[in-house]
Design brief:
This protein has one domain (2-251): Orthogonal Bundle (Neutral Protease, domain 2), CATH 1.10.390. Helix content is 52%, strand content 7%. It has helices at residues 2-5, 41-52, 76-82, 117-133, 141-151, 157-169, 185-206, 209-221, 224-232, 236-250, 253-258, 261-292, 299-302; strands at residues 25-28, 32-36, 68-73, 94-96, 101-105. The longest helix is centred in the last third of the chain and has 32 residues, at 261-292.
Length: 319
Amino acid sequence: MILGLLALFFLAGQDTLAPTLAGASYLQGTRVTVAFLPADSGKARSVLEALDAASVLPGLPPESPSGVHLILTPDEETFAQLAGGQAPDWGAAVALTTRSTILVPAFVSSRGGGWSDARVLRHEWAHIGLHQYLGGLRVPRWFSEGYAQWASGGWDWGEGWKLRLALARQEGGLESMAISWPRGEARARTAYLLSATTIEYLVVQSGPRALEVLFRRWKDVENFEEAFRGTFGVTTSQFEEDWRRYVRSQYGWLFVLSHSAVFWMVMSLVMLALVVVRKRVRLESMARLRAGEVPDEPSYWLEQDPPSDRFGPDAERSE
């Protein structure tokens, strides 16, 4: 099943009590409250402005999410403590979905693998929004992570390049991912990229509004499998097979190379070389043709008549 196939970026969401930050100050927005220490006040203001101005999440109503509590953690120890020790050391942030709480590092670290602050915020915001709208219904991890990635606007062909390289390094490609939930960074990031392609495939095949239909039906019937089948006309098992073919075709080497700057540079050099060779061949052919042509004024036409033999048989002899 696809649930076992897609081992994803770890998401904490099973807390019974919302975490608090000792000595925190607060900024209140329309849909989020930011908790921070005085040293992080500048970052707190930028986070609040970004989330208050956030665009509507795909497929969700404009007011979703709301009542979110975001904590800017001042150091690694505080981050790990508030996350309950559940976040891996490479995780960019944590969404505690059952408490509508987001934990974001305010300190400089290697977390996030180069993700921008805006992308991290949008990703976790999407997790909270989806959980709130569905009223706490169980959301498959592959779908939750794929949706958050898609909603964050972070999926592009550059991510596809990373995915193709990751799959190429693993024996068996996609099939080798059907293991357990990985805790290792490399395998988890690969599975995370895979999850994004599931939502990409759904949107490409059915259009962005399909997510809205799915969410509404899911909320009504309270069953993901039934809602999925009613929206897309296939079971998740059938969808997995179609999705596998999509990933192979969309992120195969031909697709990647055709979108690579290096590929086009090489192609430009090859085309230039072909033009030079062709021009050279044409010049040589023209030279051979000209060599075989009869001149407009052949040299033998220009030779003077040979002098007459004064003493030939027809010549008059003088006495």
